[in-house]
C-alpha cells in the first residue's frame, strides 16, 4: 500500500525495523529537548503529515522499551489517526515514573500501525443471542 506523506522533520520516514514488524517507529521533531517531569504529559510533534486511504486508520501505540525502562506511555493509547485528518501527527506522552525523562529530536517516541477498519450500521433489537459467557466481564473467568 502506498500512503502519501509530507515530512517536515529532519528525521527519516518511519520504517519497519524487522521483516515481520507491524509497527513503524515515530521520532520526535523538536526545536530543543523536552524534559517530562514525573506524571507530566506533553504533546510531542513528529513533523509528519499523512493521507490515509478511506477505510484505514493509523494507530499510535507506546513503545514497549520506553514503557519498561522509563515508565513512558501514551495517554490516549492507542491513539487513532483517521483517513480525513491532515494535520501533523503528534504523540501525547506521559511520564509515569518518579524521575524526569528527556526527549530529543530523533528519539523514537511511539510506534504507528496502519490498519483496515469497518464502519458499522446499528440495528436496534429487543434482545441479543445468548452465549456461554453472557454478561460476564472484568475478571469473571477463572472463578469457580
TrEMBL record:
Gene3D superfamilies: 2.70.40.10. The keyword Magnesium applies. InterPro entries: dUTPase (IPR008181), dUTPase-like (IPR029054), dUTPase-like_sf (IPR036157), dUTPase_trimeric (IPR033704). Keywords: Hydrolase, Magnesium, Metal-binding, Nucleotide metabolism. SUPFAM superfamilies: dUTPase-like. Residues 13-142 form the dUTPase-like domain. Its EC number is 3.6.1.23. It catalyses: dUTP + H2O = dUMP + diphosphate + H(+). GO terms for biological process: dUMP biosynthetic process; dUTP catabolic process. Pfam families: dUTPase. The keyword Membrane does not apply. GO terms for molecular function: dUTP diphosphatase activity; magnesium ion binding. Substrate binds at residues 63-65, 76, 80-82. Pathway: Pyrimidine metabolism; dUMP biosynthesis; dUMP from dCTP (dUTP route): step 2/2. Its cofactor is Mg(2+). Belongs to the dUTPase family. This enzyme is involved in nucleotide metabolism: it produces dUMP, the immediate precursor of thymidine nucleotides and it decreases the intracellular concentration of dUTP so that uracil cannot be incorporated into DNA. NCBIfam families: dut (TIGR00576), PRK00601.1 (NF001862). This is Deoxyuridine 5'-triphosphate nucleotidohydrolase.
